[in-house]
Amino acid sequence: MADPPVTISEREVESLLQYRELTPRLEQALGKFSRGEVVQPVRTTVPLQKQNGFLGLMPTYIEHDGVLCTKLVCFYKREDGSTLPSTQATVVLLDPEYGSVKAVMDGEVITGMRTAAVSAISAKLLMRPEAEVLAILGTGKQALSHYNVFTEMFSFKEVRVWSRTKERAEKFMHSVTGPVTPCVSVEEAVKGADVIVTVTRCTEPVLFGQWVKPGAHVAAVGACRPNWRELDDVLMKEAVVYTDSREGATTESGDVILSGAEVFAELGDVINGTKPAHREKTTVFKSLGMGVEDAVSAELVFDQWKAKNSQP
Ligand SMILES: NC(=O)C1=CN([C@@H]2O[C@H](COP(=O)(O)OP(=O)(O)OC[C@H]3O[C@@H](n4cnc5c(N)ncnc54)[C@H](O)[C@@H]3O)[C@@H](O)[C@H]2O)C=CC1
Ligand SMILES: O=C([O-])C1=[NH+]CCC1
């Protein structure tokens, strides 16, 4: 009989997961995904009409590595001022041989860190080498994880942050240790920026192509439904568009579907060397989030947890 599943709390996941170990595994996973080595159907979503949200089911199987996993994630379009979280996630790791559950762990930290690390991989591959200015639109959980990994991996001379209220941008500035310039408008934040991260809950475009410096790299993380937008048509059509999953983007991304923009490549294609990284052009990485990212993160957490708990 299989051992009962272990439960790993948010605090434990936080203490076990580090970007320096997670990021290379995510890069490998993106490559495997684009080589067709991962079984990962497009996320199934169940609308929660009454609560203005969705339940997303994200199963993944990496046969070669014996990793079977699913994330359950609820995401909501919260009203301003709501104290409830906009994303709640749990990750379940299974034994593919027996079908038994090995671990049930918090998915909040995993979702925050793996999403930000994948955006950082997109910047590593697609931003210009001389990039100096980073702009972050939004000041929620993803904004913080993106700030953390981007400042850990790169040396930007300036980091700008925009939120719809000055107070939120200033609160964000005070919540981090490094220097941040709070901005009162999106235009002010992104003008001349080399890298732009969009991590908002908006459903209409907030970033317009006319403000984006030619050659900039945009990591677009919000707007994960077919009728939600963060970027306008001008930007989507002028940029070379990369995604995590072509199938996911053409099914779930309003920025891709409604603009009619062509998806040039998956990030994994660039990692595998089958498609070029057009660093010299304006690039958009449209991130939807993939089960394989959760699976490799959860496997890493579980390995670390076992190592820690087997010590005498
Ligand atoms: N691509 C991926 O893998 C993932 C994407 N997401 C998406 O990333 C986005 C951010 O997620 P969190 O940081 O967890 O959310 P959050 O609720 O913590 O932060 C959202 C931010 O967006 C701002 N915002 C809300 N409505 C807005 C509007 N109409 N215009 C401009 N700003 C607005 C809020 O003030 C806040 O700063 C969400 O859209 C979420 O669905 C979340 C997890 C993974
Ligand atoms: O990949 C993910 O976990 C999510 N993508 C959009 C909302 C949650």
From TrEMBL:
<comment type="similarity">
    <text>Belongs to the ornithine cyclodeaminase/mu-crystallin family.</text>
</comment>
<dbReference type="GO" id="GO:0005737">
    <property type="term" value="C:cytoplasm"/>
</dbReference>
<comment type="subunit">
    <text>Homodimer. Binds the thyroid hormone triiodothyronine (T3); T3 binding inhibits enzymatic activity.</text>
</comment>
<protein>
    <recommendedName>
        <fullName>Ketimine reductase mu-crystallin</fullName>
        <ecNumber>1.5.1.1</ecNumber>
        <ecNumber>1.5.1.25</ecNumber>
    </recommendedName>
</protein>
<dbReference type="GO" id="GO:0070324">
    <property type="term" value="F:thyroid hormone binding"/>
</dbReference>
<dbReference type="GO" id="GO:0050241">
    <property type="term" value="F:pyrroline-2-carboxylate reductase activity"/>
</dbReference>
<dbReference type="InterPro" id="IPR036291">
    <property type="entry name" value="NAD(P)-bd_dom_sf"/>
</dbReference>
<dbReference type="InterPro" id="IPR023401">
    <property type="entry name" value="ODC_N"/>
</dbReference>
<dbReference type="GO" id="GO:0042403">
    <property type="term" value="P:thyroid hormone metabolic process"/>
</dbReference>
<dbReference type="InterPro" id="IPR003462">
    <property type="entry name" value="ODC_Mu_crystall"/>
</dbReference>
<dbReference type="Pfam" id="PF02423">
    <property type="entry name" value="OCD_Mu_crystall"/>
</dbReference>
<dbReference type="GO" id="GO:0047127">
    <property type="term" value="F:thiomorpholine-carboxylate dehydrogenase activity"/>
</dbReference>
